Amino acid sequence: MEKHNDEQKKDNNPDEEKPGPSSENTETEEDTEDSGMEKVRKYLLQKLKINASDSESDSTTGVLKELTIDGIVDYIKQIPKCKIITMVGAGISTSAGIPDFRSPSSGLYHNLEKYNLPYPQAVFELDFFKENPEPFFTLAKQLLPEGFKPTPSHYFIRLLWEKGLLFRHYTQNIDTLERVAGLPTEKLVEAHGTFHTGHCLKCRAPYTLEWMKEKVLENIVPKCEECEEGVVKPDIVFFGEMLPDRFLYLADKDFIHADFLIIMGSSLLVQPFASLVDRVHPSCPRLLINKEKVGMQDRISRFLGLRQGLIFDAKTSHSGRDVAWLGDCDTGCQLLADKLGWGEELKELVKREHARLDAENLSAKDS
Ligand code: CNA
């Protein structure tokens, strides 16, 4: 299989031989402009102390037969025990009834006006929360995992695990739906924390989701019963807080070993999560399943030839490895499952698990 992209190498290789004197006469205006730009590019790489190995010059692409879902399905099928990492955001939970942040009109940020915030993000900022926790808890009612059922996208990820293909699942979501869908905790990295547990901000006393739910659903700001002073905050990561150690440790270890990366339902706007797409090997194909294209390489990275961001405009599989499938996550996952020969299995799994959760919810209400 062709792994090297010689054309790209030639374009980006800073050590490339310069044309000799004999070629000088034939140099066109365009060539002069190109070599001028190349000089600027090299100068900037040097100034910014960017290592050649961070640039695209050593990239090895061309592992997909075609830059389509079919190309991806072929690729997964041909690698025994393909190690797949999934990276997701709020978009995989919207069909469960949980709004995302940024979708126009339905996203949470769009609907925050009533909370009189200085700016929408303040609701998830630690300093603001310490002063004024009420807007967060009012909003938390919409996000709390109360009666929400995982979506076909969640069960697709579970199916990847059951097939022995899921290397790790990285989620920005705090709704715990991966746990409800039955993903084992060792496969799960909750990058932005979770509602599953909470702690008092003053004395760090731990609290369960059930305890927190009771308060939030009754519109009470949860106060610590130990120190009787601190507010109890769910263990979700606010702006201004460190990400969980598990995320930092595993992200460093996992990504370079992945054979394939799937990104779903995220705007890829929150760092450092978004830049995980760059941690896989340069030859690792990446599939985005989302309503819109996101996480694309910016113009400066492109100019400098840096391997940063997704590149969907490659014309051939020889020069690219990224595929964008635009649409609803659940539909995209079902399509992928169909093409992998697991379509009926996925439908059955969703049906069975939803029936089980409905029965559980019913008996919880009765008791
Ligand atoms: P976001 O910034 O709101 O982006 C969501 C992305 O998903 C957008 O690109 C949408 O176009 C896309 N999208 C929405 N619905 C679908 C769908 N059905 N099919 C395909 N694509 C869809 O959310 P991110 O996750 O990127 O932002 C990170 C924040 C959001 C994290 O810190 C989360 O904690 C936070 N968040 C989590 C939840 C949750 O846990 N369910 C809900 C809302 C926000």
Automatic annotation (TrEMBL):
<dbReference type="InterPro" id="IPR026591">
    <property type="entry name" value="Sirtuin_cat_small_dom_sf"/>
</dbReference>
<feature type="active site" description="Proton acceptor">
    <location>
        <position position="192"/>
    </location>
</feature>
<protein>
    <recommendedName>
        <fullName>NAD-dependent protein deacetylase</fullName>
        <ecNumber>2.3.1.286</ecNumber>
    </recommendedName>
</protein>
<dbReference type="GO" id="GO:0046872">
    <property type="term" value="F:metal ion binding"/>
</dbReference>
<comment type="similarity">
    <text>Belongs to the sirtuin family. Class I subfamily.</text>
</comment>
<dbReference type="InterPro" id="IPR026590">
    <property type="entry name" value="Ssirtuin_cat_dom"/>
</dbReference>
<feature type="binding site">
    <location>
        <position position="203"/>
    </location>
    <ligand>
        <name>Zn(2+)</name>
    </ligand>
</feature>
<dbReference type="GO" id="GO:0005634">
    <property type="term" value="C:nucleus"/>
</dbReference>
<dbReference type="InterPro" id="IPR050134">
    <property type="entry name" value="NAD-dep_sirtuin_deacylases"/>
</dbReference>
<feature type="region of interest" description="Disordered">
    <location>
        <begin position="1"/>
        <end position="38"/>
    </location>
</feature>
<dbReference type="GO" id="GO:0017136">
    <property type="term" value="F:histone deacetylase activity, NAD-dependent"/>
</dbReference>
<feature type="binding site">
    <location>
        <position position="200"/>
    </location>
    <ligand>
        <name>Zn(2+)</name>
    </ligand>
</feature>
<dbReference type="InterPro" id="IPR017328">
    <property type="entry name" value="Sirtuin_class_I"/>
</dbReference>
<keyword id="KW-0862">Zinc</keyword>
<keyword id="KW-0808">Transferase</keyword>
<dbReference type="GO" id="GO:0070403">
    <property type="term" value="F:NAD+ binding"/>
</dbReference>
<dbReference type="Pfam" id="PF02146">
    <property type="entry name" value="SIR2"/>
</dbReference>
<feature type="compositionally biased region" description="Basic and acidic residues">
    <location>
        <begin position="1"/>
        <end position="19"/>
    </location>
</feature>
<feature type="compositionally biased region" description="Acidic residues">
    <location>
        <begin position="26"/>
        <end position="35"/>
    </location>
</feature>
<keyword id="KW-0520">NAD</keyword>
<dbReference type="InterPro" id="IPR029035">
    <property type="entry name" value="DHS-like_NAD/FAD-binding_dom"/>
</dbReference>
<feature type="binding site">
    <location>
        <position position="224"/>
    </location>
    <ligand>
        <name>Zn(2+)</name>
    </ligand>
</feature>
<dbReference type="InterPro" id="IPR003000">
    <property type="entry name" value="Sirtuin"/>
</dbReference>
<feature type="domain" description="Deacetylase sirtuin-type">
    <location>
        <begin position="62"/>
        <end position="343"/>
    </location>
</feature>
<keyword id="KW-0479">Metal-binding</keyword>
<feature type="binding site">
    <location>
        <position position="227"/>
    </location>
    <ligand>
        <name>Zn(2+)</name>
    </ligand>
</feature>
